[in-house]
Amino acid sequence: MGMNDRGESLSPAGALPLLILRVLQSESLHGYAIAQRIHLLSREVLAVEEGLLYPTLQKMLRKGWVEAEWGISETNRKVRFYRLTRPGRAHLDQELASYGRITKAIQEVLRTA
Hints:
alpha+beta
């Protein structure tokens, strides 16, 4: 069962890498577990489709923000576990600061327009 039938798809550009980095900040996870965690932490509002998740993880691997190693999932399947790297932590910090500024600016426009 795909997650896209349980919530809204993730749309703002750049939001998915930010959410993945944040979720991986606390522990290594495999792809499906990343999608589940985002879905649950968003109170089941956000859904991460596999067709978007795995290409995003590949881009993040190429940029050095995450590393991956093969392991066995809780359902006894061979999966790749992703973990945040030092450059990934630095990028997450930058993105969180930027997100805070943008969100504050948007809220100000909505409040005063």
